[in-house]
User: Which sequence fits this backbone?
């Protein structure tokens, strides 16, 4: 059994200016470099990465539940720009340096992390197992038919798409999709005795308020993004595993996304799967800590 994740060391709820609450969890030294984590689909604040590395690397990892997931209040009709505004308010409430945050996004957390960077938050970004802008015209012929149909629905009729995602969204259903769509390398992580119960707990917490938060996230991830990746000016490292078999991650393993972001650096690890956030946490964190740091 490998040690991929730890239980939260500190948890809490922060109140935003409009009265809504955002739930958060932390790991690592309180005076460490703050790294804001945007988790994948429907996973709550309780799932981390970099177990055993945060203390020696002096990383304060902060995971925040998006609205309607876990311990965060819902915000019907929210957008990716709204999330960036929430992060700015959250950083102010917790005395975090918004412009100097490091931001990590995993899978469906990709557009949420990049939205923050596009709106001037963060000093560097790590995107792992990229969830790409699937509705962009460049991917029109590159998606699996089932995924293409979902993207078209999300773009043409977001309200109907949101209702559809809510209809089949549950912790058990999403776990089955993840497990069935994973290759051998990823199943070794997802079925690990130390990882599986924590991952499933994070899914259960993500759906604690029902499926609406997950459904809204999915519509936002599958629609056109409200920002141009070309406007991002901070360093962005894109990490992708060559053994990643997910049909909802970047169809070209983030090659196009790397070209769209002028500051991007792409890392394709041929022997890694989609779970490289946990199997390769050390190089991801080390690069995130040094990217954007002036030399000398």
Assistant:
């Amino acid at each position: 059994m490998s040690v991929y994740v730890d239980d939260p060391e500190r948890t809490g709820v922060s109140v935003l200016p409009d009265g809504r609450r955002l739930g958060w969890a932390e790991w690592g030294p309180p005076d460490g470099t703050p790294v804001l984590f945007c988790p994948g689909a429907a996973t709550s604040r309780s799932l981390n990465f970099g177990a055993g590395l945060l203390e020696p690397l002096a990383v304060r990892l902060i995971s925040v539940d998006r609205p309607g997931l876990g311990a965060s209040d819902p915000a019907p009709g929210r957008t990716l720009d709204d999330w960036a505004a929430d992060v700015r308010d959250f950083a102010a409430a917790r005395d975090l340096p918004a412009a100097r945050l490091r931001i990590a996004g995993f899978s469906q957390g990709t557009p949420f992390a990049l939205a923050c960077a596009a709106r001037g938050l963060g000093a560097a970004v790590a995107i792992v197992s990229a969830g790409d802008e699937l509705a962009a015209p460049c991917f029109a012929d590159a998606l699996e038919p089932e995924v293409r149909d979902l993207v078209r629905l999300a773009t043409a009729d977001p309200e109907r798409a949101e209702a559809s995602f809510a209809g089949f969204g549950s912790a058990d259903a999403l776990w089955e999709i993840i497990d069935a769509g994973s290759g051998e390398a990823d199943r070794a992580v997802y079925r690990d005795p130390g990882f599986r119960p924590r991952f499933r707990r994070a899914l259960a917490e993500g759906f604690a308020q029902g499926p609406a938060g997950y459904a809204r996230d999915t519509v936002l991830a599958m629609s056109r993004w409200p920002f141009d990746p070309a406007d991002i000016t901070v360093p962005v490292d894109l990490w992708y595993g060559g053994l990643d078999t997910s049909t909802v991650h970047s169809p070209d393993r983030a090659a196009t996304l790397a070209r769209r972001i002028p500051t991007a650096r792409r890392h394709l690890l041929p022997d890694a799967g989609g779970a490289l956030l946990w199997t390769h946490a050390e190089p991801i964190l080390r690069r995130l800590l040094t990217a954007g740091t002036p030399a000398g």
Q: What stands out?
A: The mean pLDDT is 95. Residues 80-93 form the longest helix (14 residues). The two ends are 41 Å apart (CA to CA). The first strand starts at residue 10 and ends at 15.
